[in-house]
Amino acid sequence: MKVIRFKFLKSYNSIITLLLSLLGFASSCDILGGKAMYGTPSADFIVKGKIESVGERRPIAGIKIEMSQEIDTEKGKMPVDLDHSVSAETTGTYTVTNKGAFPMDQTYKIKFTDVDGALNGEFESLDTTIVFQNPKFTGGDKSWYSGHTEKDLNVKLKNKK
């Protein structure tokens, strides 16, 4: 009786081992052609606009636009230099982008600085903040990349006295 019981348990264990092995192989194979899902969700945050002078309302070229961000830590807010800066074109237009940011509410500090001196006139610097609250993303790949979202920020700079 013990021999029959032992053979039954041994056969039962072999069948269970075979089924678990098949299940493991079947779940590791990519039968439907999907992609592996590794990574972090990301999106591009774009700020664009036009820079004009206050009085004459003419476009200003040669203004440096810097995008930075602060993150909340246990010790308070910590600035993060995104190393995102551009210069305004001759029409006064600009576009600055934070690529690959986490797709949730984001707050950015935007700094406008006259770097060309008296070439286009001298203008005061301006620091401002732009908030992407409940952003709507377009152009994502239906995977980890959520796409991009944009905000317009038109700025008027004062002449230096």
Radius of gyration: 29 Å
| Residues in β-strands, percent | over 45%
For the biggest sheet, the summary is: 5 strands, mixed
Detail the poorly predicted runs. none
Distance between the termini: 106 Å
Q: Helices and strands: which structural class?
A: alpha+beta
Structurally, how many domains make up the residues? 2
CATH level 4 superfamily of the largest domain: Immunoglobulins
Number of helix segments? 1
Would you tell me the overall average pLDDT? Answer: 84
C-alpha geometry: rod-shaped
The CATH class name of the largest domain reads Mainly Beta
Number of strands: 9
Architecture per CATH nomenclature, i.e. the level-2 architecture of the largest domain: Sandwich
Strand-and-helix sequence, N→C?
Answer: HEEEEEEEEE
**Roughly how much helix do the residues carry, as a percent range?**
10-25%
- In CATH, the topology of the largest domain is named Immunoglobulin-like
Explain the layout of strands and helices.
Layout: H1 2-28, E1 42-53, E2 63-73, E3 76-87, E4 93-101, E5 106-114, E6 126-132, E7 138-139, E8 145-152, E9 155-157
Parallel strand pairs: 1-8, 1-9
Antiparallel strand pairs: 1-4, 2-3, 2-5, 5-6, 7-8
What does the model show?
This protein has two domains: 1-34; 42-157, Sandwich (Immunoglobulin-like). The longest helix has 27 residues, at 2-28. Strands 1, 4, 7, 8 and 9 form a five-stranded mixed β-sheet that branches. A four-stranded antiparallel β-sheet has the order 3-2-5-6, with no helix packed on it. The model has no long low-confidence stretch (mean pLDDT 84). It is rod-shaped. β7 and β8 form a beta hairpin. The termini are far apart. The protein has one helix at 2-28; strands spanning 42-53, 63-73, 76-87, 93-101, 106-114, 126-132, 138-139, 145-152, 155-157. With 161 residues, it is an alpha+beta fold.
